[in-house]
Amino acid sequence: MADTHSIITPAIMYWGTPVVLIMTENEEGTANIGPISSAWWLGHRCVLGLASVSQTTINLMRTKQCVLNLPSDDMGHYINPIAKTTGAPDIPPVKQMLGYEYCKDKFARSGLTPRASDLVRPPRIAECPVQMEAELMGSTELMSDMPDRKGFLLALEMKILRTHVRKDLRLAGHTNRVDPDRWRPLIMSFQQFYGLTPQRSVESSLATIEEEKYRMLTRSDVVSQGGDMDRVGSEEMDSGIDERSMGTDSSK
Ligand SMILES: Cc1cc2nc3c(=O)[nH]c(=O)nc-3n(C[C@H](O)[C@H](O)[C@H](O)COP(=O)(O)O)c2cc1C
């Protein structure tokens, strides 16, 4: 069979991930919006990929708090005005090279609206359908094999403390589920914005797993995250998974 591929060395590896607008608090108490797309989720943890020179990173390291706001695919026009800006008054050389400018008030520049959070100091973004209040648990320096780049990029582990979701995105008849047919995340692929196509491409066999079975992993059966109903003891909770099947049985 003929080889249909050729070798390239892309300068960026932005294969397509959801955009996250990170709210953090500046030293003087004002709020900063940091748009990113290097984010992935496992259990109730999120790992963020951030440049260490960004104001968002500086604020996160100092305060350990943020709100992770997920915009929908029709919200790109809010992000463009703040896309090539930084909340850091001394613009780092790498951002100067990329044409970034300083922006003191990204809410004013973007047209987005702050809304008070419950558990952390930075506000949520009212227009975003999903808003997660979160706490920094730890960080790892990337590129430690390259002495002149070590620590320029960081992987930050965030713990989700509370999730706010726009009511029309909830799956009817369920307390704690999002309707994936309604949730339309904004995706960034190689610096361009996309949405998901409205139709499922193919039915997913992973989706045959009952969602509540994952709850034992996140421990949100024990540590309430403040949903609008008391989950403990509800029928949805009966995942049938115990510590033994998780391989975490400490009584052994
Ligand atoms: C859609 C989008 C996605 C981005 N993704 C990332 C990312 O994943 N990681 C990162 O460090 N910067 C990313 N950036 C660049 C940051 O937004 C940029 O560094 C910005 O200056 C951060 O703001 P701050 O310095 O006020 O924190 C992205 C920018 C945009 C517009």
TrEMBL record:
Flavin reductase like domain span: 16-141
Residue spans of biased composition, Basic and acidic residues class = 241-252
Coiled-coil features, chain-numbered ranges: none
Using the UniProt annotation, give all residue ranges assigned to the region (Disordered): 221-252
Keywords assigned: Flavoprotein
Family named by the database record = Belongs to the flavoredoxin family.
Protein name per the record: Flavin reductase like domain-containing protein
Instruction: Check the record and name the InterPro entries matching this protein.
Output: Flavin_Rdtase-like_dom, Flavoredoxin, Split_barrel_FMN-bd
* Flavoprotein listed as a keyword: yes
Which stretch is the leader sequence? none
For activity, the cofactor(s) needed are: FMN
